[in-house]
Write a structure and sequence with these properties.
binds D-glutamic acid, Rossmann fold, alpha/beta, 10 strands, six-stranded parallel sheet, four-stranded parallel sheet, 273 residues
Amino acid sequence: MNIGVFDSGLGGLTIFKSLLENLPEYNYIYLGDNARVPYGNRSQEIIYQFTKEAIDFLFKQNCQLIILACNTATSTSLHKIQQEYLPKFYPDRRVLGVIKPVTEKITDRNFKKIGVIGTKATINSGAFTREIKKTLPDALILQQSCPLLVPYIEDSGRNDKVLQLILKEYLAGLKKENIDSLVLACTHYEIIKKEIQREIGPQVEVISEGKIVADKLRSYLTKHLDIEKKLEKKKQRTYFVTDLSQDFKKLMRLFLGSHANEASIKQIKIDNG
Ligand code: DGL
């Protein structure tokens, strides 16, 4: 069986890249719902609906385990998927997200003033704050949504002056508070990590998710040998998108670097409409 990786679009390839680099032996199926990206400005109900459709599709592709490589889908939908949807429809399959691995890392480091940036839906869900507070109840968590960053990063005509202005505006409040760490709670932000670090200052530890999620998956599989044993290890990679838009090749190269293999992408329909 395969490991499925789902994102609202192609940004999840930043996390997928880390999985390929750190756990290359498994068979992976990536699904990007790029016809309906961004999810970040949508309601929780719609994101949950879209996420369920993606999960159904990936389970039909023989996935034993799915990683929601999307902060927006994880923060709005993972809990309900794990508590309600899986027990009812797929009791022997698993879905994991990106929040727990990152918040566990933060707990290990015992940060005190933690900034979190992400899409509107991620920030409004309060999921990162809730999860961090479980283990670091005294930590101060400051959240900031950055809705302009995803379209900026996906736009082909990137302009560094514009980015500087946007970051200055979004990070000003966090900077004033002297945070000690900043979580990049969005798949895309990894691409502009250097610029974010420059704006927030060298004293702040900027935390991106890829490697942390890969390490966590490794330890999960070590602890759950019943699942691990079902996974095929033939290094097969299959990519599904919901729109073979003009930009997908460029974005695939941007997010996946040298692992990009555009030839193996198929377009599919996952909605029931
Ligand atoms: N993948 C989303 C995330 O990590 C960003 C793009 C979107 O808004 O759908 O939050």
